[in-house]
């Protein structure tokens, strides 16, 4: 608002200067339409030069102000873009946060090809994470979250979006991905985390294996994000009940198609 008010003031000042200059030109023209002595002509020219210099100075000041305003507007635009990214990013892991995930979902469901392609969601939850926090402390728990987030980030490409959904829960939106492709990705993530070796920074000892359970579902036409997530969450619960470190597919999802 301050920037716009300043520019408006500069434009008003420039407009007033131009109006005065126009009046000066009209007065000069009126005098030139009559017989005029040489001394009077010289005075007229002198006044006209002074008026021209004044309006040029005003124009230069306006130009400088507009350039400064443009730089300030560009800086504000960059700052806004940075803030927007931060608002959609999880500070600990660098993945998208829940808000970022929901915005991407809205963009997907309003896209032209939403109904023409299969789309999937998978939800993963670190197994026995509370026990890890209680045993080794929250700082070590944060380290585990970062390791798991890296596995999600490294294995999602293109249009896919990995996000931290809250606590030790992670979610991936997989546009234009059939169910068998989503299950394959979930297995790759599970195996990647299972194979990782984690050491206690205080003692150097290797920590018990970190694993993750994952639920997968394919989106149904017309359903909202909450329904899709609920079905994926049900599959995740079955993975936990089935012994953890597993991938389960939502029972209501379309059947797996044979891999090509």
Structural notes for this entry:
The chain is α+β, with helices and mostly antiparallel strands. The protein is built from seven helices and five strands. It has a five-stranded mixed β-sheet, sandwiched between helices. β4, α7 and β5 form a beta-alpha-beta unit. α1 packs antiparallel against α2 and α5 packs across α6. The longest helix is centred in the N-terminal third of the chain and has 50 residues. The radius of gyration is 33 Å and the shape is elongated. The two termini are 58 Å apart. The C terminus is likely disordered.
Note the topology:
Elements (H helix, E strand, L loop, with lengths): L1 H31 L5 H50 L10 H12 L10 E7 L2 H8 L1 H18 L5 E6 L2 E6 L4 H17 L16 E7 L6 H17 L5 E3 L11
Instruction: Provide the gyration radius in Å.
Output: 33 Å
Strand share of the residues?
5-15%
Into which percent range does the helicity of residues fall? Answer: 55-70%
Give the ordered list of helices and strands.
HHHEHHEEHEHE
Q: What's the end-to-end separation, in Å?
A: 58 Å
Q: What's the total number of strands? A: 5
The secondary structure category is: alpha+beta
Mean pLDDT: 82
> What assembly state would you assign to the polypeptide chains in this entry?
single chain
Q: Tell the overall outline.
A: elongated
Number of discrete helical segments: 7
Largest sheet: 5 strands, mixed
Strands across the major sheet, in which order? 2-3-1-4-5
Poorly predicted regions: 253-260
